[in-house]
Structures are given as structure tokens and as C-alpha cells.
Amino acid sequence: MSVSRQVVLDTETTGLNAELGDRVIEIGCIELLSRRPTERRFHQYVNPERPIEEGALKVHGLTDEFLADKPRFAEVAAEFLDYVRGAELVIHNAAFDVEFLDAELGRAGLGKLADHVAGVVDTLALARELHPGKRNSLDALCERYTVDNAHRTLHGALLDARLLAEVYLAMTRGQDSLMMDLDSPAEQAAATARIDASKLTVLRASNEEQRAHEAYLDAMAKEAAGGVVWRK
Predict the structure, then answer these.
(1) pTM for the complete prediction?
(2) N or C: which end of the chain has fewer CB within 10 A?
(3) Residue 48 — very low, low, confident or very high, per pLDDT cuts 50/70/90?
(4) Span 121-169, pLDDT tens digits
(5) Which residue in 92, 116, 131, 155 is the catalytic one?
(6) What is the pLDDT of residues 98-121, one digit of tens each?
(7) Has 92 been annotated as catalytic?
(8) 105: burial class by Cβ within 10 Å (0-12, 13-18, 19+)?
(9) What is the DSSP string of the chain?
(10) First and final C-alpha spacing in the chain
């Protein structure tokens, strides 16, 4: 059964290693209801209570000074969990973000992310299935699916979540049911209405048309070196 509420999520961090004490400094979330973005978003900067590594600073541009007066994770954890509770999360390279969020929730005595959400979709794993051997970074996927990311000079959790939402919807558009693309109840009813085949008019091929068709098949069979399957 599909999940009607999804949350596209991204984080920024002080560094790359949660096990060595790196912390979350920004969380950005976009809500999708039945695959349609809503205006209900979650965005929060977080004071990590530790310095930001130089390499991470070059990626997101968030400084120690900027984050000094922001709330600590434990102070916003309840609001964050209320937002994501029961939703299916959509995350690019999900293992990274989940590890950091699990560490933050653990410090706050709130269990793990999986205790609060319906599941996680990793768009990096999905992209690798769809495009094996290709570059599947968020920037590469934006280019592949013509999602405009020209304004993305630095990483930002909310901006990246919005771009990922567009990419995810484009990547999975083939999975849409017809019902997802119809707006009105009348359109939906028309799409699901049964057709009474007994009332359809059947136009059968004439003898001349059948002979022309057989001649065409004969010509194709002669050109096929190994023969054709419909004549075996």
C-alpha cells in the first residue's frame, strides 16, 4: 500500500563523521501529500555545540558565529518529530542523514528515527538502479531531469530538499497511477469507468486487406536471415 504522506528531508552537518561527534546544524523538510508538494515545511538551524570543520564550511557556508544563538537539537526535537511522524521519508544518500539524526535523537533520549516514521526511500539507491554507471549526485540528477538548480551555489538543507522533491517526483513519475494525475472527481470517475465491450463496433479486415497484410509479412520473412517467429 502506498504512503500518501511523504517528507523529503536533508541535513547539513559540522563534518562527515557522526561517530566522531559531528553534529546536525540544519534540517530542511518538504511535505508531499499524494505526491503533491504542500506549503507545510520544516526548517531549523541548530547550534551544534562544537566547531564546524573547514571542509564542511566550504560546502554549506554556515559559520560558528551564525549558529551560536540557534536552539540546540534537543530543544527542537519534539517539533521535528511531530512533523515527520508517520511519514515516509525521502532522502538522498539516506544512510548519512539517518545516522546523524539517530545520533541526535539518541542524545535526547528519543530513540531512533525509524521509531517515528513509516520508512525511508533512498533516492541515491533508486538513482543507481535507474542509471547504473552514471553520476547520481543531486546536481547530476537535477541536470538529468531538467530541474533548475542554477541558484544552488552552496548546499542548504531546505533548498536541497526542495530540489530533491522535484527530482524524486520526476524519477518516479512512471510509478504514478492515473488517479494521481487527475484533478477532479469527474475526471477520476471517467478514468475508472468500465467499458461495455459488447457495444463496441468491430471492423474486420477485408479479403483484400488480409492478402496485402500476408504479402507484407512474406516480404519481412524473406529479409530476415534467421526467419521470423510468427512463421515458426
Answers:
(1) 0.74
(2) N
(3) very high
(4) 999 999 999 999 999 999 999 999 999 888 776 788 999 999 999 999 9
(5) 155
(6) 999 999 999 999 999 999 999 999
(7) no
(8) buried
(9) ---SEEEEEEEEESSS-GGGT--EEEEEEEEEETTEEEEEEEEEE---SSPPPHHHHHHH---HHHHTTSPPHHHHHHHHHHHHTTPEEEETTHHHHHHHHHHHHHHTT---GGGTSSEEEEHHHHHHHHSTTS--SHHHHHHHTT---TT-SS--HHHHHHHHHHHHHHHTGGG--GGGG--SHHHHHHHHPPP-GGGSPP-PPPHHHHHHHHHHHHHHHHH-TT--GGG-
(10) 43
CA atoms within 13 A on the CB side of 84: 30
Residue 165 identity (one-letter amino acid): A
Q: Which three cell numbers stand for residue 101?
A: 539524526
Cell numbers 538543507 correspond to what residue? 157
Residue type present at position 82: D
Instruction: Name the amino acid, one letter, at 31.
Output: E
Residue type, 124: L
**Residues 137, 140: Cα–Cα separation, whole Å:** 5
